[in-house]
Amino acid sequence: MYALLAWTWTRAAAQYPVSMLLLSLATAVVGALDAVGIMLLFAHTPRIAGFTAAEVLFLYGTSALAFGISDILLGGAERLGQHVREGTLDALLVRPVSPLVQIATEDFSPRRFGKLLPAALVLGLALPRLDAPWTAGRVAMVPLMVACGTVIFAGLWVLAASLQFVLVDSHGATKSLTYGGAFLTQYPLTLFARDFVRGVTFAVPLAFVNWQPSLYVLDRPDPLGLPDAARFAAPAVAAVVCAVAAVAWRTGLRHYRSTGS
Amino acid sequence: MGRSGTPPAMIEAVDVAKSFTLRRRAGRGPRRVRTTLSAVDGVSFTVGRGEFVGYLGPNGAGKSTTIKMLTGILTPSSGTLRVCGMDPSRERTALARRIGVVFGQRTTLWWDLPLRDSLTLIRRLYRVEASAHRRRLAELTALLELEPFLDTPVRQLSLGQRMRGDLAAALLHGPELLVLDEPTIGLDVVSKATVRGFLERLNAERGTTILLTTHDLGDIERLCRRVLIVDHGRLAFDGDLARLRQAVAADRMLVVELARPGPPVELDGIEVVRTEGPRQWLRLPRAANAAAVVAGLAERYEISDIALREADIEEVLAGLYRGDHAYTPTPP
């Protein structure tokens, strides 16, 4: 059902092929600029917070890839607030398909894939340059952490959307949860204050998107001194985030008030 | 879902209420006071299979809120609601396959897609079989005269065309119940006639149960065999049009043309509501004997013409909305 709706919107977007192409290109360029920024940083200093350029690019690549995929799948959910405000959510609710799927696929366009390209490139560039003790487990951890990261971000998208049922104009605030999270996980968390790291480990579990699994892949000690199990907790954390998001979404829908008339 | 035995009523509402909590700023400080707004306040009614029901009421009476609860968009604060034997808010998606919903104020079609694509997408959303879809689409295209604009993007359609498109979209999956929220709002005379004729046939030939809200009295007089009137969130009337006229004991109007202009006539039990030259409008209470009043007038005044008018439905409704007549609904 999701694919069907996405395809329909893609066809609608294809009515303006030039615009579609240029937007895809622009998205890719903006994504690539981020990575260039990190490279420039390392032109001046060999290490950031104890991490080498390859390691930071690895963190950046995994985070950007996970975020990019989740953005393609569910990024549209942030439009919920607009639908609530304009009362157009009513029309979505009388169809036999989850409104989340309908909103997420709305305006679906291939340009969303533009973000994946630089992320995949950066990751491809970083992987062979890593000085990691590669074992089968560590190799398997890389795709697993991207998958779990994707699910965690997807859960955050839904959570952010659910908040908009209550805080109709919170579009900007909820963005800090999703885009903010994406930005944060692109750097080694040791760059930030300890209390902050605790916050993103236990409250909004961004640390499990790529930080904790990376500590395992890169064989580094945890600055918070958490047990080793935390490094493998990403799937469990992803499941919890999804459960919380699902409950929030249902609660939001039940409290939806619609508009007059 | 479907219970065995006799088919359940299409809609069963028992003491359904919906209230909203509003937070308003009290005075200048940051403190906020909670007030509860009761949009629907304990409404009960049953709609059987094949009925054509008009759901009326002034603006803000709770019509749309009721419609939104019936379709599962809003969750009732209290009371029980069954539509097609289902709880709308809990089984919203399953219910959506069995009902059709049209909002006159906004389209459920995809703005940028041609109507034909929207309808194809609806087929997939509702998982309608291809052969059934072709048959229904052909039928709806003919009845609603969709052919000329099937390939036009929805945003370029006129309001009348869009409404016909919305009707087709709501009926492609062959729903048992069609719920319409002001389907004729803003339409011109011809479009209104097309929509009304279509709804009439749908109800008569297919047996589709129809519930519509409207402010258009033409809709009611032409279509609705039964009328529900809601006011201040409560059911103010449930019955057919003739009973409505009777129940509210609407006053009749006596239009008298005097031989020459003069001051308002005086007679016990009547009230002059308007004068225009020699012509005067007299309100006649339902209980008054028209013949006696006419005789009484003829005795005192020189009358050149006289006419007695039944109150039209508009006046009946206006009276009811104003609360001129106390009426307690009785179960039919």
TrEMBL record, chain A:
Transmembrane segments: 21-42, 48-69, 142-168, 229-249
Record InterPro entries: ABC-2_transporter-like
Claim: Transmembrane helix is one of the keywords in the record: yes
Keywords for the protein's UniProt record, in alphabetical order: Membrane, Transmembrane, Transmembrane helix
A Pfam family reported for this protein in Swiss-Prot or TrEMBL: ABC2_membrane_6
Keyword Repeat: no
Protein name as annotated: ABC transporter permease
From TrEMBL, chain B:
Major place of residence: membrane
Subcellular compartments: Cell membrane
Gene3D superfamilies, sorted: P-loop containing nucleotide triphosphate hydrolases
Record keywords: Antibiotic resistance, ATP-binding, Nucleotide-binding, Transport
Keyword tRNA-binding listed: no
Membrane topology of the entry: Peripheral membrane protein
Domain ABC transporter: 11-257
Keyword field contains Nucleus: no
UniProt-listed Pfam families: ABC_tran (PF00005)
GO molecular function: ATP binding
Protein name, as recorded: ATP-binding cassette domain-containing protein
Protein source organism: Actinomadura yumaensis
Lineage, broadest ranks: Bacteria, Bacillati, Actinomycetota, Actinomycetes, Streptosporangiales
